[in-house]
């Protein structure tokens, strides 16, 4: 999940790429590098809503990388009628476009629910890109369980699951569901994907079985970095980020788990804090050096 602050009150130089009819991605200055970090935001994010992007673009430039943020159909309030599969198809379309544009090296970075896009892409397109970064990878299911009162959550879950079972997964849910999902109209499928155990979005919950993690983290073939925020309010009370990192690491091929993975000190969810941003950028730079770029 995410609810990020915007970079307001400034002009943001760069280039807008129309990579497919009706689909755009923004390349921050300095642009045109042969190596690219593709960035995808979380729920309710769109172009320029994550506060550290301009700083990240500047930090990447000396490494020979451009930063490109994709705006997917799920951006802003589009996620309620979307899916990781639809996101994946659009990200893959941008990857193909950039390869035709002679961009030689591509990395994919996700913030918040964008981390689900990142792991999903790595699992479904082995060897197509050079690696991934997951920042603020949190469980939407566990967050929902923490903030929605249990009797109400049980009712909402049952209503959504009943529609999915009846083959009406694309039907929009009630206003009660919308109110609990950032005011976003949401289908029965996406509600179940985000908030029910074993949903398509359920990659980062703390109670996932070893077998499940073997089939997700254990099947990734490209190197990746995980950077969690120390003061992430989307972690439920009592969450143990270090435990999560160690567990994910234990199910990952040690050759591809970045030694720079860890906790960003002092960081809240979208890392608006200047010192925490510097630490995030250092982790990303170290990861890029690790994998030989």
From TrEMBL:
InterPro entries: AB_hydrolase_fold, SidJ
Superkingdom, natural source: Eukaryota
Pfam families according to UniProt: DUF1749
Protein name: WGS project CCBQ000000000 data, contig 00015
Source organism: Kluyveromyces dobzhanskii CBS 2104
């Amino acid at each position: 999940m995410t609810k990020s602050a915007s970079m307001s009150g400034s002009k943001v130089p760069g280039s807008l790429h129309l990579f497919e009819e009706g689909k755009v991605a923004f390349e921050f200055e300095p642009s045109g590098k042969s190596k690219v970090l593709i960035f995808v935001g979380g729920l309710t994010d769109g172009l320029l809503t994550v506060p550290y992007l301009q700083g990240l673009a500047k930090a990447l430039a000396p490494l020979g990388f451009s930063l490109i943020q994709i705006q997917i159909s799920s951006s802003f309030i589009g996620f309620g009628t979307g899916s990781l599969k639809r996101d994946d198809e659009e990200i893959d379309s941008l990857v193909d476009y950039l390869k035709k544009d002679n961009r030689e090296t591509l990395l994919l970075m996700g913030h918040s629910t964008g981390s689900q896009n990142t792991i999903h892409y790595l699992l479904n397109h082995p060897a197509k890109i050079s690696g991934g970064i997951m920042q603020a990878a949190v469980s939407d299911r566990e967050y929902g369980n923490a903030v929605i009162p249990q009797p109400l959550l049980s009712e909402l879950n049952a209503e959504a699951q009943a529609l999915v079972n009846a083959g009406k997964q694309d039907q929009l849910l009630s206003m009660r569901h919308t109110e609990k999902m950032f005011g976003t109209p949401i289908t029965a499928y996406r509600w179940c994907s985000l908030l029910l155990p074993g949903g398509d979005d359920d990659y980062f919950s703390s109670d996932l079985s070893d077998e499940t993690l073997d089939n997700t983290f254990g099947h990734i073939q490209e190197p990746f970095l995980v950077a969690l925020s120390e003061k992430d309010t989307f972690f439920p009370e009592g969450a143990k980020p270090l435990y999560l990192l160690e567990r994910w690491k234990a199910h990952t091929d040690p050759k591809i788990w970045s030694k720079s993975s860890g906790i960003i000190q002092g960081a809240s969810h979208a890392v608006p804090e200047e010192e925490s941003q510097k630490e995030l950028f250092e982790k990303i730079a170290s990861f890029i050096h690790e994998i030989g770029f």
